[in-house]
Automatic annotation (TrEMBL):
Uppermost EC category: transferase
Alphabetized UniProt keyword annotations: ATP-binding, Kinase, Nucleotide-binding, Transferase
Quaternary structure note: Homodimer.
Enzyme Commission (EC) number: 2.7.1.100
Organism, as annotated: Alicyclobacillus acidoterrestris (strain ATCC 49025 / DSM 3922 / CIP 106132 / NCIMB 13137 / GD3B)
Record-given protein name: S-methyl-5-thioribose kinase
Pfam family, one: APH
GO biological process: one example: methionine biosynthetic process
The Aminoglycoside phosphotransferase domain, residue ranges: 191-268
InterPro entries: Aminoglycoside_PTrfase, Kinase-like_dom_sf, Methylthioribose_kinase
Gene Ontology molecular function, alphabetical: ATP binding; S-methyl-5-thioribose kinase activity
C-alpha cells in the first residue's frame, strides 16, 4: 500500500487489510478508533473492538512528513519510523521489560502497530499530579545502563558498532536537536517563544560568552561523539509509568551520540518538574514532599545506572579493563549529564518545544519567575559541570 496519512476512518480499513489483524481482533468484530496524538511529531491512534471496550487493543503510530504540532512548514522525513522500530527492537533485546512490544512495522505506510499501554500514564502528567512511582528509579537506571552499555564500543565489536552507527545515522532528526536544543534558544530566532517578562534576562543570557562557550562544547559533543545508541529525546513525556511498570517510548530521535545526552535530558526534565511543583502541588507541605521524592528518585536513577553500568563493564567488556579509566569515564558521564540537563532546561523555556509542567501555568506572573529559576539553575549546570565529581555535587547544583 502506498503511503497516505491515516485518519480514524481509513485506520479501520488499514488494520483489517494487514495480514496480522486476525491475531489482534477476530474478523467478525467491528472496530473503533480514537485519536491519541499528544506529542509534537506523529499521528497516534488506539484501535479496539466496539463490543469489547475492555478487550484487546493496539496503538497505531504513523509518521507525517512534517511535525504534527507545527505543521507542514516543519518538514521531517517519514524514515523516522524506521529508526524508531529499529531502536525499539534493539532495546527489546537488552531491556525487554522497559519498552512497548511492537506487533508490526509497516515500512510502506511508515507506521508501527504496538502494545497499548492503557494502564500507564505519561510520567510528566503523573509528576504534575505528585504521583510517586516506587520502581521507576530502578527501571530507568537499569534501562539507561543496559541500552547505553550494550550499544557502545565497550561491548560491541568495532565493525558492528560502526555498522550500527550508519544504520542509525538519523541526520534530519539530529539536525532538529542541533537547532532546537543547542542553537536557536541561544540566539534571537523566530521559532523561539518565551514569556515576555523574561526578555531582559534572556538578552543577558544570550550575550553571555562563557555560557555560550559551554553550550558550543556540548553541541560539538552531541554532533561528534558516537558513544552509544542513545534514545535522543528522553524527557518525561517519553516515559509511560504506573505503580509497577516503566516503559520508555518514542525513540524516533535515536542516533549514535553521547550517553550523557539521554541521562541529562531525563535529569533536566526532573529539575523542571521540581521547579514547577511550587504551582502544581496543592500545599507547601505536599510541594516539599514531592520535591524530596524527585531529588531522591534522580539520585537513585544515577546510583542504579552507575552500579549496573560498572557491573556490565566488569563482566562483559573485553578490551577496556582498567579501573582508573572506568572511574574517569563515569565521572565524565556525570559531567556530561549535568551539562546536557542544563541545555534541555533552557530549550524547554526559550525554544520552540516547551513542556506542560511550565506551559500549563497560564498566569505569566506565576510562570515567569519559575522559568527564570529554571534558566538560572541550567546556566549554573553548564558553567560548573566540569568541577562536578559526584552525584551529590550535581544534585547540589541542580536543586538549591
Ligand atoms: C517540532 S517540535 C520538536 C521537538 O519535539 C520532539 O518531542 C523533540 O523533543 C523535538 O525537539
Ligand atoms: Mg517524542
Amino acid at each position: 500500500m502506498s503511503y497516505q496519512a491515516l485518519d480514524e476512518q481509513t485506520l479501520v480499513e488499514y488494520i483489517r487489510r494487514t495480514p496480522e489483524s486476525a491475531k489482534w481482533f477476530p474478523s467478525e468484530q467491528s472496530l473503533e478508533t480514537s485519536d491519541l496524538a499528544d506529542g509534537n511529531m506523529n499521528l497516534v491512534f488506539r484501535v479496539r473492538a466496539v463490543a469489547a471496550p475492555d478487550g484487546p487493543s493496539v496503538i497505531v503510530k504513523q509518521a507525517l512528513p512534517y511535525a504534527r504540532s507545527v505543521g507542514e512548514s516543519f518538514g521531517v522525513p517519514l524514515d523516522r519510523i524506521r529508526i524508531e522500530a529499529g531502536a525499539l527492537q534493539i532495546e527489546a533485546t537488552y531491556c525487554p521489560d522497559w519498552v512497548p512490544k511492537i506487533y508490526l512495522y509497516d515500512p510502506d505506510m511508515h507506521a508501527l502497530v504496538m502494545e497499548d499501554l492503557h494502564q500507564h500514564l505519561v510520567m510528566r502528567r503523573g509528576m504534575m499530579k505528585q504521583i510517586k512511582y516506587p520502581h521507576c528509579a530502578t527501571h530507568l537506571g537499569t534501562f539507561l545502563a543496559r541500552s547505553l552499555f550494550y550499544t557502545s564500543d565497550l561491548y560491541l565489536s568495532s565493525e558492528t558498532k560502526k555498522k550500527m552507527a550508519c544504520e542509525f545515522a538519523n541526520p534530519a532528526l539530529c539536525k532538529v536537536t542541533e537547532d532546537l536544543v543547542f542553537t536557536h534558544p541561544f540566539m534571537q530566532h523566530p521559532e523561539n517563544r518565551y514569556s515576555r517578562s523574561l526578555e531582559a534576562y534572556v538578552l543577558e543570557f544570550q550575550a553571555d560568552e562563557e555560557l555560550l562557550a559551554g553550550v558550543l562544547q556540548l553541541r560539538e559533543k552531541f554532533m561528534s561523539q558516537s558513544q552509544a545508541l542513545i534514545h535522543g529525546d528522553l524527557h518525561t513525556g517519553s516515559i509511560m509509568v504506573n505503580q509497577a511498570e516503566t516503559k520508555v517510548i518514542d525513540p524516533e530521535f535515536a542516533c549514535y551520540g553521547p550517553m550523557g545526552f539521554d541521562i541529562g535530558s531525563l535529569a533536566g526534565n526532573f529539575a523542571l518538574s521540581y521547579i514547577s511543583q511550587a504551582y502544581h502541588a496543592s500545599s507547601q507541605a505536599s510541594c516539599h514532599a514531592y520535591q524530596a521524592w524527585i531529588v531522591s528518585t534522580l539520585q537513585q536513577i544515577w546510583e542504579v545506572f552507575e552500579q549496573t553500568f560498572c557491573s556490565l563493564w566488569d563482566e562483559e567488556a573485553v578490551l577496556w579493563k582498567n579501573d582508573t579509566y572506568k572511574k574517569a569515564y563515569v565521572v565524565s558521564l556525570l559531567q556530561d549529564t549535568a551539562g546536557f540537563a542544563g541545555v534541555e532546561m533552557i530549550r524547554r523555556v526559550l525554544g520552540l518545544a516547551h513542556v506542560a509542567d511550565l506551559d500549563s501555568i497560564a498566569d505569566e506572573q506565576v510562570r515567569a519567575p519559575l522559568e527564570r529559576a529554571a534558566l538560572t539553575v541550567a546556566a549554573r549546570l553548564i558553567r560548573t559541570r566540569r568541577k562536578l565529581q559526584t552525584p551529590e555535587d550535581v544534585i547540589g547544583c541542580m536543586f538549591d
